[in-house]
Design brief:
Layout: H1 3-12, H2 91-110, H3 114-138, H4 145-154, H5 166-183, H6 186-200, H7 203-211, H8 222-251, H9 257-269, E1 271-278, E2 284-289, E3 295-300, E4 305-309, E5 314-319, E6 326-331, E7 337-342, E8 346-351, E9 356-361, E10 367-372, E11 378-383, E12 388-392, E13 398-402, E14 409-414, E15 420-425, E16 429-434, E17 439-445, E18 451-456, E19 462-467, E20 472-476, E21 481-486, E22 493-498, E23 505-510, E24 514-519, E25 525-530, E26 536-541, E27 547-552, E28 556-562, H10 565-573
Antiparallel strand pairs: 1-28, 2-3, 3-4, 4-5, 6-7, 7-8, 8-9, 10-11, 11-12, 12-13, 14-15, 15-16, 16-17, 18-19, 19-20, 20-21, 22-23, 23-24, 24-25, 26-27, 27-28
Helix pairs in contact: 3-5, 4-5
Length: about 575
C-alpha cells in the first residue's frame, strides 16, 4: 500500500480518518458527526479504493473480533496519525506498538536477572545445608570417643585433628556420615570396613582396644577429689545451721524479721560520705574489706595493691609484684591474707604485712575477678581464656580447670555454705556449679549483654547479677528463674554485692559514677551514693552493713558510713 496516496486522498476530501483497533478499514466522515459503526472486515483490495459512505447506524456494541490473516509489515514511521481531531492514530501504529509491547512483556516475564540467580543459588545452598544437618542429626553416631575414632578410621578419615576435642570429633564424624549418606556411599563403605575389621580382628587387638580408654569426661586429680570431700564436709553442717536459723526466725514469735529489715534499710538510707582518700596515681580497679572490718585493700591499674587501716583510711602496706595492671583484690574470710589478680595471667597471695606467699600460674589470658572460698582454703580466679580455676591456698596447686562459658569469664562468687560457686561472663550467662560433684546445675539466661558482677545472698537461695545492659537481676535458685529485674543504672554495672550478714540490701556500682543501695525485700531504691567524678569500678560492704567502700577511675577511695551509729549506741547504753 502507498502511504502518500492515502495522505493525498484524505487531504483533498477534508476528511478525518477514524482508526479501529480490530480492523484496518478507513471510513471517510463528513462534516456532520456520525455514530460509531460496526467494524467491517476489509476485502483484500488495494488501499486506494475508498468504500462508499454508509448511513449512520444506531449504537451497537462491537462483536468479538474474528482472527485476521497476517498482514504485510508496514513502515514504523506514520505521518497520518495527526489527521484525526480526536487524537487517535493509525491502526498500523497501534498494531506495531501493541505487538512490540506484547513481545517485550513476554521476554521480561521469562528473563531471570543475575541477582535472582544468586538469590536462588543461596536458597538452594541453604536448603542443602539444612537437609544435610537434618540427615546428620538422624544418623546414629557413637558417643564413646574410642568408638568415634574407630568409625573415622573405618571411613578413611583422620581419627583426630590438631586441637580437636571429643565433641568436635563427634560432630565431624556426623557430618562425614551425612555427606556419604547423601552420596549413597555410606552403607557400602561401612559394610566393607566392618567386614575387613571382622576378618582381620584378633584377640590381641581386642586386648589393646580394651586397654586404651578415652573417657567422655576429664578425670580429676586425687587432690581435687580430696578437696570435693572437704568442701562437702564443710558445707553440709553450715547448710544445716542456716536452715535451723531460718526455721527459728519463722516459728519464734519474738523474732521480727520485718523489723530487723526495716532497721537495716533505715541504716542504709542514712549512709553519707564519711571519708575520701586518693588511693593511687592510677585509676583504682578493686577493693575489699577484711573479715573483721579493720583493714581495707585496694588495687590499681599500675599493678600495685595497698592495704589501708580503718576507719582513718591510712596506708599500712604496699604490695608490689605484678608486672601488669591489677584487676581485682580480695581478703580471706578467715585470716588476714590478701589475693590479687592481674592482667599478667597470674594471681598472688600476700599476708597482711605485705609479704608474697604464693603465685598461682596457669591461665592463658588475663585475669578478671578473684574470690575466696568461705572456708578460706581455696581460691577461685576467672580469666579471659574462657575458664575459671580453683586453687589450693596451702599448696598452690591448681585443683580444677572449669570450662562451660562460650566467651570470657568475668565474675565469680561462692555460696555462703561453700557448696556452690556462681560464675558469669561475656556470653551474657550466669552459671551455678556444684563444687561437690563438679556439675553445672543451673544456667541463668536473661541478660542481653555481658554479665560483670555476681553475688550470692546470705539467705542461700537468692543470687544477684549485674551487667552491661544496665540492669541488676535477682534470681531465685529454688524456682530456677529470674525473680526481679532492677533497672538500676544509666550505664553498665561493674559490681554487685549483698549485705554480708543477712542480705537485707543489695549494693551496686556503675560506670555512671554512682553506687546505689536497693532493698532486698521489694527491690526499691534506698540510697544513691553520688560523689565520684569518674567510673565506679568496684565496691564492698563491711560485715555489719554499716559502711560501704567504693573505688573509681578518679583514683579516690570513698567510705560511706551510717550517721546513726553513735545515736544507736547511746540509746543501747541508756
Amino acid at each position: 500500500m502507498d502511504v502518500d496516496e492515502e495522505n493525498i486522498v484524505s487531504t483533498s476530501q477534508e476528511e478525518s480518518l477514524t482508526t479501529m483497533p480490530d480492523s484496518e478499514t478507513l471510513i471517510p466522515t463528513t462534516d456532520s458527526p456520525i455514530q460509531p459503526i460496526q467494524p467491517l472486515i476489509p476485502p483484500l483490495a488495494p488501499p486506494s479504493v475508498v468504500p462508499p459512505a454508509i448511513a449512520p447506524l444506531p449504537t451497537i456494541p462491537p462483536p468479538i473480533p474474528q482472527p485476521l490473516p497476517p498482514l504485510p509489515v508496514r513502515p514504523p514511521a506514520k505521518q497520518n496519525g495527526e489527521l484525526g481531531a480526536n487524537g487517535s492514530g493509525s491502526d498500523s501504529d497501534y498494531d506495531e506498538s501493541s505487538g512490540t509491547q506484547h513481545a517485550l512483556g513476554a521476554n521480561a516475564e521469562y528473563e531471570i536477572s543475575e541477582e535472582s540467580k544468586l538469590v536462588r543459588e543461596r536458597q538452594e545452598r541453604a536448603m542443602q545445608e539444612l537437609l544435610m544437618k537434618r540427615r546428620a542429626s538422624a544418623l546414629a553416631v557413637p558417643t564413646n570417643d574410642m568408638a568415634v575414632r574407630t568409625r573415622l578410621r573405618r571411613l578413611g578419615e583422620p581419627i583426630t585433628l590438631f586441637g580437636e576435642r571429643e565433641m568436635e570429633r563427634r560432630d565431624r564424624l556426623r557430618m562425614i556420615m551425612a555427606k556419604l549418606d547423601a552420596e549413597g556411599q555410606l552403607e557400602k563403605l561401612l559394610k566393607a570396613h566392618e567386614e575387613e575389621e571382622i576378618a582381620a580382628s584378633t584377640p590381641v587387638a581386642d586386648d589393646e582396644e580394651e586397654m586404651i580408654q578415652y573417657p567422655f569426661y576429664t578425670e580429676g586429680s586425687n587432690a581435687l577429689l580430696e578437696a570435693r570431700v572437704e568442701i562437702a564436709k564443710y558445707s553440709i553442717p553450715r547448710a544445716a545451721l542456716r536452715l535451723e536459723r531460718s526455721r527459728r526466725k519463722r516459728d519464734d514469735p519474738d523474732e521480727d524479721v520485718d523489723a530487723e529489715m526495716d532497721w537495716a534499710l533505715k541504716q542504709a538510707a542514712s549512709l553519707v560520705l564519711d571519708c575520701s582518700e586518693i588511693g593511687d596515681d592510677r585509676p583504682l580497679s578493686g577493693c575489699s574489706f577484711s573479715y573483721d572490718g579493720k583493714l581495707l585493700a585496694t588495687c590499681a591499674l599500675n599493678g600495685v595493691a595497698k592495704i589501708w587501716s580503718m576507719p582513718q583510711v591510712q596506708k599500712v602496706y604496699t604490695l608490689k609484684g605484678h608486672t601488669e595492671r591489677a584487676t581485682d583484690i580480695a581478703f580471706s574470710p578467715t585470716q588476714n591474707q590478701v589475693a590479687t589478680a592481674s592482667a599478667d595471667r597470674t594471681a598472688k597471695l600476700w599476708n597482711s604485712e605485705g609479704c608474697l606467699l604464693k603465685t598461682f600460674e596457669g591461665h592463658l589470658d588475663r585475669l578478671a575477678r578473684i574470690a575466696f572460698h568461705p572456708s578460706g582454703k581455696y581460691l577461685a580466679t576467672t580469666s579471659f581464656d574462657k575458664t575459671w580455676r580453683l586453687w589450693d591456698i596451702d599448696t598452690g596447686v591448681e585443683l580444677l580447670l572449669q570450662e562451660g562459658h562460650s566467651r570470657n569469664v568475668y565474675g565469680i562468687s561462692f555460696h555462703c555454705d561453700g557448696s556452690l560457686a556462681a560464675s558469669c561472663g561475656l556470653d551474657a550467662l550466669a552459671r551455678v556449679w556444684d563444687l561437690r560433684s563438679g556439675r553445672s546445675i543451673l544456667a541463668l539466661e536473661g541478660h542481653v549483654k555481658p554479665v560483670l558482677g555476681i553475688s550470692f545472698s546470705p539467705n542461700g537461695y537468692h543470687l544477684a547479677t549485674g551487667g552491661e545492659d544496665n540492669t541488676c537481676r535477682v534470681w531465685d535458685l529454688r524456682k530456677k528463674k529470674s525473680l526481679y529485674v532492677i533497672p538500676a543504672h544509666a550505664n553498665l554495672i561493674s559490681q554487685v554485692k549483698y549485705e554480708p550478714q543477712e542480705g537485707y540490701f543489695i549494693a551496686t556500682s556503675s560506670y555512671d559514677m554512682t553506687a546505689k543501695i536497693w532493698s532486698a525485700r521489694d527491690f526499691k531504691p534506698v540510697r544513691t551514693l553520688s560523689g565520684h567524678e569518674a567510673k565506679v569500678t568496684s565496691l564492698d560492704v563491711i560485715g555489719d552493713g554499716q559502711c560501704v567502700a567504693t573505688v573509681s577511675h578518679d583514683r579516690t577511695i570513698k567510705l560511706w558510713s551510717s550517721r546513726g551509729n553513735g545515736k544507736e549506741k547511746d540509746m543501747d547504753i541508756d
